[in-house]
Design goal:
The structure is a single chain. The chain has 346 residues and is an alpha/beta fold. The chain has 2 domains: 141 residues, 3-Layer(aba) Sandwich (Rossmann fold); 145 residues, 2-Layer Sandwich (Dihydrodipicolinate Reductase, domain 2), CATH 3.30.360.10. It contains 10 helices and 14 strands. α4 links the parallel β4 and β5.
Length: 346
């Protein structure tokens, strides 16, 4: 039985609480939050020891791993404390407030020889997993473009970061993973329309080293929730709905079913549309199952600290691009990576 402590009972923390309390092979050994009423209610419901401070919980409880679901500004402090106590850690995304803090977490995990997972939950979405499998099998040939839309109403729970770091990091992680190459240059425009502290709308364009284009639209201003990723290639297009976990392929009729590798179509016409059956599952449960399995087997992780750093790096670069009102190229991205101190919540 893997003993796990949960630190943070906010909106995402309560989801972790629900899943961990019913996860096979896991003992939810302790929970921690500063909200006394919330903490006591959760403790009674799940019959688990409660703590007001993470230091006390980490000192008193015998744990194998910790899930860190506190506000972004505390990720580094809490994650370091858990690693210092010899625990494997899953920290919610983004990995930290800035690259410097994220690197401290990665380095601490390496020194302690412990796992550091980052909660980029969409990697565990069954539709995304099926999409990745079909892309790797070459079902739409060369990939031309990745386009993501992540839009919806403003969530009152968010106070410490803007929409780029809170939401766009999901798709930046997935797009970077599917493109299987680094970003060559990027440009972004953000706006602050309703969210008074940080940006609440992003439109961004990226070019990957592989030649794939990335288009990203994210906001907290849309009165309906949209979570969609499309992948355009020479043989057609995949459309993945994160919410419904549907995956549909729209085929290019100009591309014969069986061809040699050198064939290039001269046109694009509408072909067959195929909706693939997906065995649905809750991404958070799949994420936590994978983390616990990695703890038991000493790795590997599907989304580790380095992946979390990469997503944060791209998010901060998009914010910088807006601030400077210009395209950031490879040299600019390398400078930001070296500087490492831009804060996610600025």
């Amino acid at each position: 039985m893997t003993r796990v402590g949960l630190i943070g009972l906010g909106a995402m923390g309560r989801n972790h609480l629900r899943v961990l309390s019913d996860l096979e092979g896991v003992e939810l050994a302790a929970i921690c939050d500063q909200d006394v009423r919330l903490l006591e209610s959760a403790g009674r419901k799940h019959s688990v020891p409660t703590y007001r401070t993470w230091d006390e919980m980490l000192d008193r409880e015998r744990l194998d791993a910790a899930v860190v679901a506190v506000p972004t500004g505390f990720h580094c402090q809490v994650g370091l404390a858990a690693l210092d106590h010899g625990l494997h850690v899953l920290v919610e995304k983004p990995i930290a407030s800035n690259l410097e803090e994220g690197r401290r977490l990665v380095a601490a995990a390496r020194r302690a020889n412990k796992l550091l997972a980052v909660g980029h939950i969409e990697r565990f979405n069954p539709a995304v997993r099926e999409l990745q499998r079909r892309l790797e099998a070459g079902e739409i040939g060369r990939i031309f473009q990745l386009q993501a839309r992540r839009q919806g109403p403003f969530p009152a729970r968010i106070r410490d970061v803007g929409v780029v770091v809170d939401l766009a990091t999901h798709d930046l992680d997935v797009m970077h993973h599917l493109a299987a190459s680094d970003v060559q240059r990027l440009y972004a425009e953000t706006e602050r329309r309703i969210h008074t502290d940080h940006e609440d709308m992003l439109n961004a364009l990226m070019r990957f080293d592989s030649g794939v284009l990335g288009v990203l639209q994210v906001n907290w201003l849309t009165p309906t929730k949209i979570r969609e990723l499309s992948v355009l290639g020479e043989r057609g297009m995949f459309v993945c709905n994160y919410l419904t976990q549907d995956l549909t392929q729209f085929k290019n009729a100009e591309f014969p079913p069986e061809t040699d590798a050198d064939f290039r179509p001269r046109a694009v016409t509408e072909g067959e549309a195929v909706k693939f059956p997906i065995t649905q599952g809750e991404p958070l449960k799949l994420e936590l199952q994978a983390f616990v399995q990695a703890v038991r087997e000493d790795g590997p992780l599907e989304v580790d600290g380095e992946a979390g750093l990469q997503a944060l790096h791209l998010a901060l670069a998009l914010v910088d691009s807006t601030a400077q009102a210009r395209v950031l190229d490879k040299a600019d991205l390398e400078t930001l990576w070296a500087r490492g101190s831009s804060r996610a919540g600025r």
